[in-house]
Design a protein that fits this description.
single chain, about 350 residues, mainly alpha, ABC transporter involved in vitamin B12 uptake, BtuC, 15 helices, ABC_BtuC-like, transmembrane helix, transmembrane transporter activity, ABC_transptr_permease_BtuC
């Protein structure tokens, strides 16, 4: 046991180092080259250079948003997989991201709302509604709530909400122009004002989620076992559900529906930390933040002007409207093969 605790502690420390290095890389790497001296002097310069202004106004907010959103999605996925005992559970797969995105598009199209402050409340409402519908649909039929029915309900609602979202966008060109890049899942162009409004919800959800670690571990042993040990399982599930809504809804409000982070990260965390959610949840926070930072850095280089992929696409007549790929596309490219692997493993078991 002491060896296991030491191993987990060392792993957590290494994850923190990886997060710090990824954060620094997010500040330094991109289309505009930033040297080390410029980066070190970024807050001390009385007359900032162009490069320093880019770091101050663009890259620091972007890195902070990626860190917060990645940590939140990783923790939300871990909670969902624990509560449903479903290895495929995540905000993206279970329709929570799609529901939040639909409500944001409705807010933009019908109510002419374009501020991220207002988006936050609509995203929370959409996340809560979609999560409740998935749970309700998964409970119907013989046998009650099962992991398979939850997955099918989530996939169906995701398709339904996505279709409604696309229908609204097709019929409202103005809304499409406003939210199309956001819908792909992107942290580009965001500022600190966006994060400052949502960060209180994130902090509350992070604290509550980490404090639930022991209770969630007990709950994964079985509800009867948890009740036998004196746990009030209804309260634990209710608080966890609220945390999921705050984490996923806030993430969608800031960065759009970034998928599959909440699916990938909990599996990686469990492979390191075992089955104890007192360790899994902190790992999910650090690894989720690191993963999204690295995905964002990768998106800056994939179609950077002069890169082979850019030349190939433009030579084939493709229309490129940005110097980078939205981070949601990168997470999907990585996450879809991971999803297929987990699904095949779950079916075979």
């Amino acid at each position: 046991m002491p060896f296991l605790k030491r191993y987990r502690t060392v792993g957590l420390f290494m994850s923190l180092i990886a997060l710090i290095l990824s954060f620094i890389g997010s500040l330094k790497l991109g289309l505009t080259h930033i040297n080390w001296m410029t980066l070190l002097d970024v807050w001390q310069a009385t007359d900032p250079t162009r490069e320093q202004l880019i770091v101050q106004n663009t890259r620091i907010p972007r890195a902070l948003i990626a860190t917060c959103v990645g940590a939140s999605l990783g923790m939300a996925g871990a909670l969902m997989q624990a509560l449903t005992r479903n290895p495929l559970a995540s905000p993206g797969v279970f329709g929570i991201n799609a529901g939040a995105a639909l409500f944001v598009v409705i807010a933009s199209s019908i109510f002419s709302v374009y501020s991220y402050v207002s988006f936050t409340w609509f995203a929370f409402l959409g996340a809560a509604m979609s999560g409740g519908l998935v749970y309700l649909l998964g409970s119907f039929g013989r046998g009650g709530l099962t992991p398979l029915k939850l997955t099918l309900a989530g996939a169906s609602l995701t398709a339904f909400f996505t279709t409604l979202t696309q229908g609204i966008l097709v019929s409202d060109a103005g809304t499409m122009d406003q939210v199309l890049f956001w819908l792909a899942g992107s942290i580009a162009g965001r500022n600190l004002d966006t994060l400052i409004y949502v960060i209180p919800f994130f902090v509350i959800a992070w604290i509550c989620t980490l404090s639930l670690g022991g209770a969630i571990t007990t709950l994964t042993m079985g509800e009867n076992v948890a009740k036998g040990l004196g746990q009030r399982t209804g309260w634990v599930k209710g608080i966890a559900a609220i945390c999921i809504i705050l984490l996923a809804g806030g993430s969608v409000a800031i960065a759009g529906p970034i998928g599959l982070v909440g699916l990938i990260i909990p599996h990686i965390a469990r492979s390191i930390a075992g089955t104890d959610y007192r360790w899994i949840l902190p790992y999910c926070a650090l690894l989720g933040a690191t993963f999204l930072l690295l995905a964002d850095i990768g998106g800056r280089y994939l179609i950077m002007p002069g890169e082979p992929l850019t030349e190939l696409l433009t030579g084939a007549g493709a229309r490129i409207t940005s110097d980078e790929v939205p981070v949601g596309v990168i997470t999907a490219l990585i996450g879809v093969p991971f999803f297929i692997t987990i699904a095949r493993r779950s079916i075979s078991e």
